[in-house]
Amino acid sequence: MLETTADYLRQNLLKEVNRCVESHEALYVKQTEGKPFVIIAAEDWQAIEETLFLNRIPGLVDSIHQAHREVLEQGGVPLKALYNCEL
Asked: Distances in Å between the alpha carbon of 5 and those of 2, 34, 79?
């Protein structure tokens, strides 16, 4: 996660927003007074919302894990090799 201060962000808003959008990294902003906050690109926020929605569907995650195990048992390629992710 990228990090900056609110003072720096005030002077460099467009640059920092573009950096978040292009890098797909969140920007953690510290304030002298007040609580810190995070800026993320809309595309990344939509992906988070979709993940949260899908995780609310009962049994979906277990079903995905089971399907992955079955693929591996049949000699298929692990997801990590395809997408660089863990199940």
From this structure: 11, 12, 38
